[in-house]
Design brief:
There is one protein chain. The protein is of the alpha+beta class. The protein folds into two domains: 55 residues, Rossmann fold (3-Layer(aba) Sandwich), CATH 3.40.50; 94 residues, Arc Repressor Mutant, subunit A, CATH 1.10.10.10. The protein is built from six helices and nine strands, in the order H-E-H-E-H-E-E-E-E-H-E-H-H-E-E. A four-stranded antiparallel sheet has the order 3-4-5-6, with helices on one face. Strand 4 and strand 5 form a beta hairpin.
């Protein structure tokens, strides 16, 4: 059912179930659930999980051009420019850049980037985000600066 919902909608999905084995939880999350809650659970926990899922699922800004320094991102055309020269970006790179540019000079937590770009809260020991940021930095060059905030995440500032 979750896979069918995901095919036609991006509505938030939380699975509430008595099935608590790891294999079952992984199956539910891979099917597209945003969270998986095993009975018994308290109302306060469920409410907090619902709030967290809704925060992650907040509608992304889908129109307009964002500019930081010499870097511009056109959200409608899904394109980026430094000094009006196009910057070729992968889908993930574009998503990361759009999130950072939506809140210039603000710290964006690693957890939020994982959640919104990779649709997961799992971070493990993966350096995937760091590698993407390194590549993104090299592609945008002197258009803007992506700063690492140690122990927190990243921010973008104009230069």
């Amino acid at each position: 059912m979750c896979r069918r919902i995901r095919q036609s909608s991006d509505v938030a999905v939380i699975m509430l179930t008595a099935r608590g084995q790891e294999r079952e939880r992984v199956t539910g999350l891979r099917a597209g659930a945003d969270d998986y809650v095993v009975k018994p659970f308290g109302f306060a926990e469920l409410q907090a999980r619902m709030e967290a899922v809704l925060r992650r699922a907040r509608p992304a800004r889908t129109a307009g051009v964002l500019t930081v320094g010499k870097l511009s991102v056109d959200l409608d055309k899904h394109s980026a420019f430094v000094n009006e020269s196009p910057v070729p970006l992968t889908r993930k790179e574009f998503q990361l850049l759009a999130i950072l540019m939506a809140e210039p000079e603000m710290a964006v937590r690693r957890e939020r980037l994982f959640s919104e770009v990779w649709r997961t809260t799992w971070q493990g020991t993966s350096r995937t985000l760091d590698v993407h940021m390194t590549t993104l930095r090299s592609k945008i060059g002197g258009g803007a600066e992506i700063q690492t905030i140690r122990g927190v995440g990243y921010r973008i500032v104009g230069i």
